[in-house]
Amino acid sequence: MTEKDWEKWVRMIADEYDLDLGKTNKETLKQKKILEAAIHIFAEKGFSGSSTSEIAERAGVAEATIFKHYRTKKGLLLRLVIPAIAKVASPWITRSALKILEQDKPFRERVEDVILDRVLLIETNWKKIKIILVESLFHPELREAIQTHVAKSVFPVMSEKIKQLQAEGELRRDLPDYVLLRSVISMAIGYLLARNVFPEQLAQSEEKDEISMIAEVLLKGVGGSHGD
Amino acid sequence: MTEKDWEKWVRMIADEYDLDLGKTNKETLKQKKILEAAIHIFAEKGFSGSSTSEIAERAGVAEATIFKHYRTKKGLLLRLVIPAIAKVASPWITRSALKILEQDKPFRERVEDVILDRVLLIETNWKKIKIILVESLFHPELREAIQTHVAKSVFPVMSEKIKQLQAEGELRRDLPDYVLLRSVISMAIGYLLARNVFPEQLAQSEEKDEISMIAEVLLKGVGGSHGD
Amino acid sequence: MTEKDWEKWVRMIADEYDLDLGKTNKETLKQKKILEAAIHIFAEKGFSGSSTSEIAERAGVAEATIFKHYRTKKGLLLRLVIPAIAKVASPWITRSALKILEQDKPFRERVEDVILDRVLLIETNWKKIKIILVESLFHPELREAIQTHVAKSVFPVMSEKIKQLQAEGELRRDLPDYVLLRSVISMAIGYLLARNVFPEQLAQSEEKDEISMIAEVLLKGVGGSHGD
Amino acid sequence: MTEKDWEKWVRMIADEYDLDLGKTNKETLKQKKILEAAIHIFAEKGFSGSSTSEIAERAGVAEATIFKHYRTKKGLLLRLVIPAIAKVASPWITRSALKILEQDKPFRERVEDVILDRVLLIETNWKKIKIILVESLFHPELREAIQTHVAKSVFPVMSEKIKQLQAEGELRRDLPDYVLLRSVISMAIGYLLARNVFPEQLAQSEEKDEISMIAEVLLKGVGGSHGD
DNA sequence: GATGAATGAGAGTTCATTCAT
DNA sequence: TATGAATGAACTCTCATTCAT
């Protein structure tokens, strides 16, 4: 991929991957503003640390309007978060990763593409995903939604793909599928979290190179010549 | 390591690794109860979601007592969290990982031991670490404390060790130290989070085996024969 | 009166005595539903304890519809209550009591008939009368409406009748008319309230017998032979 | 009883009959002020129509103070009302009526004394009793408290006394005890309510005379000579 | 050192009501 | 006529915190 192609592709995916809300909806302008404000503030201060009055102010609506539409503060949270979970785990989103893996390229490049793809997906929706990650620790409903959607819709699809790749000799056969899948996800999220906690440390290196290294570690491991 | 040795060792480390507070303990019984209650409730509901009255009730003290000792709610959080960060990042704790790496064993076994060691460290202090991870997203002071301690006290030590292992041929030399370190940590935390979100899925497999597989992936990667 | 006559008569009066609204009915179906819902909810929770949203929900209309028709919540209350007061106190309703007293029967039977007649009138409209009684304690307008209608339209008529009965020797002449009237009303309402607060205690006895006893006490008093 | 004795007695009873709260209690000054304010405002506007902020203001305390002591608004209501119910129905209060009936006087005078005694009891605690009467229509707990206390502690005692008076020939034997008891209570409460709804009408007559007439009606009935 | 009482500020939520459609 | 959207004001209640004891 040339430098230019790369950038075009990145932009395209970023657009396409907005886990948005407003596709099928009759939501008013005010409702959209409320949701946008809520995402921003929940992400910044956490659910409990945010106040509905602040959200209302940022959205430019009366506080009562929030409650007319979402009944409770928690209702607003769920309205934000459950559709996002559903979308991340939707076949449509999952399939886009599969498609990349089915392209006619060296496996190594396909792995890089998939990682980048997921990293972009997460970055595009970083606020929402931050909310999901944090609040799922405190709200069992969210945990359940994640389990239901991810475990029952993402995992089976990916598991099958992994087994196929194992059969093709692209992935090792001596480790169970869930370990392989977990390894990819761990490395991707670990990378993103590191960037968040130590922002200046990673600012200098190119994202493309970082992803390339992640793929390298994933495929070949960290072991040196001595271990052979 | 025999089965028996393993268990003994696990118990020993678990004891030793309690990031506890009460070492320099001038702390009264009531203070200990307050800290214990706060850890429990902060971990369960998050800092903002917890109320001092609930903490007081669980600790069996009057609400005012909390403020006598810690001045503010946030003071209580910091009193819990800063020493824990300091301790995790303390030379003493870091060095214990180094010691394991310096033992006279095959590298592969040493890696397994280190991972298990860190996993146990995290498990032993899971509530506190959960608080640290979550609240560091919302309180810059905490982020700074982590950066200061980890980046300036853990990273240099580990970095040096990694370079030494690269020189010895145990680790690859074509990747920067921080990538290697991040890879280990990502895999460990990814494993623990997965256990948290999908508890029943991992309940069946032995922790020892899981860690063995993590080490395997780390050292050799997930790539199959085809990639060679 | 035979058992059969009695039952027929009771049914007839109950129909006839519905203090209803919908006589001059230009009222739409929705308006009727609103009024019905309001009566139910005001009686159940009191005026202040009821919310327009609950009334709207029960009536199956939008909240705004209530305000289109009755301008304010209090307007709705008054629309319910003032016509009911007017009707209870209307010459038509008052006269029906007089008519009973003018029938050609022993006085004792006529008294029983009148008490039963009023008890039925109250029972038929129990919800509305509950609202009137309770809310008149808190809304001076209602108190005034009652005073105006009852004192100026019921009392004079009844007073005259009482004086006539005193002249005829059916009622004692040594007590003022208002004491006699109050006594009848007190006994009737006392009976109904007792039935409300201690429902199971009075469930067993026949209403006809209870009224007969009330008439007996009213006419002859509770004093025993010793007092003569 | 001379005019002077009468007044002295009235004053004495009024003091003695305060259904008060603060006998056994460590209630703070502020708590007493809250209770007093609540009684006033609940009586004036009804429970639902009163706001805690208004109560706080009248009591001269912060709103939060109310909730520290009574947890909820309803808790405050119950704290006011349940002890009052218990006290009205206490053996001590009931027995004072019995004592009057056992005095060595003509029965007629004893009846007048008892009625006056109860009327004073109710007047002294009119606000609380108004609250009890009104709110018991909307809060089942209150209804239950009344049933429990009155039905199980007042009624049996009075019932026995009534039977004794029937045996002595002071009260008629051909009517059940509950009818006789209800008659007395109906007449007393009817008198008080009438005074409330038509205040100016009764302002002119002396209370002593009114009660004398109530006793007369109760004992001899309203029937005239013709009915004999 | 510990607490019960008290509170100002603000939380989430409900209220009756208005208005454009 | 009827309503969905919107809201300012008020609501009950909780918050972290202070202070006299």
From TrEMBL, chains A, B, C, D:
Keywords: DNA-binding. GO terms for molecular function: DNA binding. One of its GO terms (biological process) is regulation of DNA-templated transcription. It comes from the Bacteria. It holds the Pfam family TetR_N. Residues 51-70 bind DNA. Residues 28-88 form the HTH tetR-type domain. SUPFAM superfamilies: Homeodomain-like, Tetracyclin repressor-like, C-terminal domain. This is TetR/AcrR family transcriptional regulator.
